[in-house]
Amino acid sequence: MYDAPLRRRWVIRQQNAAKVGAAIRKLRLARGWNLAVLSAQSGIPISTLSRAELGQSALRHEKLIRICRALEVEEVGF
User: What pLDDT is attached to residue 4?
Assistant: First the structure.
């Protein structure tokens, strides 16, 4: 059976993942960093960062905090 509210939540989560991923990429590139540098600074695997930046996966709060700290940005809105 099709669950419309569940589907809506999934769509919203995917849209948010894409926005967060684009923001991470923009901040990373502004620093002149590649994924390997962000990975080393945050302790998060390159593959995870890549999928997040492409909006293919949503990050858990703990990983978002680590990325924000590595990029030296405030953890606002998470």
Answer: 72
